């Protein structure tokens, strides 16, 4: 090749989708600026398997080790815990090999499912059966009556901008007893979101009648379930609903978060 190239190994949540969207926008902007080949061009790997093969081709294992400070900062942001200097230093020393990460596959994580009032008391056996079929393990369970503040914290950001919608959701969520489950499996957060479907049961029904909100929901307020929408939110929800801890959870991530 006559010109040098820059090869980057990137890591992130939904990395392929996010990078693909970013490159599409960048390419469209590039094409509007110039029709020549003078501006840089970009290519990305198409699958995780191809990524691993290309990483072996271009990098050594020493090249693909996350920076200690970055790993500590990411962990601190996710858990929002203020560590003592001694604990912080121990975390900075735990470098992570990305080769090992790629080979290990999806991590076992925890997420939270809240079954809203009026649903779990009639449908719990079927819901538990479906969770078992989807390879979830229940590592925490409790029924409780939500307070208004806790109910409001569970609402999506767009709903929280509408006072009338907040009042409707909170009135329903505090109208009876809810059942909260802490669930564990590889890629638990995304898998649960995929099972629940959109917040609007009618939209869920149009997409796939088998989605849980399509089956159990009747409106955007009474849509059957709340699920942690991201991993940081799952960490928050576990701490909110299970402050006593998860004695049955086996995943290393949860044990580390209890520090």
TrEMBL record:
UniProt key word Cell membrane: no
Record-linked Pfam families: NDK
Keyword terms of this UniProt record: Kinase, Transferase
GO terms assigned for molecular function: kinase activity
SUPFAM superfamilies per record: Nucleoside diphosphate kinase, NDK
Residue ranges of every copy of the Nucleoside diphosphate kinase-like domain listed in the record: 108-248
Keyword flag Kinase: yes
InterPro entries: NDK-like_dom, NDK-like_dom_sf, TXND_domain-containing
Family statement: Belongs to the NDK family.
Protein name as annotated: NDK5 kinase
Organism the protein comes from: Hippolais icterina (icterine warbler)
């Amino acid at each position: 090749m006559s010109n040098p190239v820059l090869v980057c190994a990137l890591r992130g949540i939904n990395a392929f989708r996010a990078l693909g969207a970013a490159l599409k926008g960048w390419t469209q902007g590039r094409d509007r600026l110039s029709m020549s080949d003078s501006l840089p061009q970009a290519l990305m790997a198409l699958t995780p398997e191809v990524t691993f093969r290309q990483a072996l081709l271009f990098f050594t294992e020493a090249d693909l080790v996350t920076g200690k400070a970055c790993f500590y900062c990411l962990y601190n942001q996710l858990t929002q815990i203020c560590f003592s200097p001694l604990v912080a230093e121990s975390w900075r020393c735990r470098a992570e090999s990305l080769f090992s990460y790629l080979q290990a596959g999806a991590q076992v994580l925890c997420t939270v499912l809240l079954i809203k009032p009026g649903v779990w008391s009639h449908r719990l056996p079927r819901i538990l059966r479906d969770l078992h079929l989807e390879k979830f393990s229940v590592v925490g369970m409790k029924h409780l009556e939500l307070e208004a503040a806790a109910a409001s914290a569970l609402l999506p950001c767009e709903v929280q901008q509408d006072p009338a919608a907040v009042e409707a959701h909170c009135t329903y969520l505090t109208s009876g007893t809810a059942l909260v489950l802490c669930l564990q499996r590889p890629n638990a957060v995304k898998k649960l979101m995929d099972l629940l479907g959109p917040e609007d049961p009618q939209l869920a029904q149009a997409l796939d009648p088998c989605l849980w909100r399509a089956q159990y929901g009747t409106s955007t307020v009474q849509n059957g379930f709340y699920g942690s929408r991201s991993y940081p939110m799952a960490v928050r929800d576990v701490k909110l609903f299970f402050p006593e801890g998860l004695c049955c959870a086996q995943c290393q991530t949860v044990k580390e978060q209890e520090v």
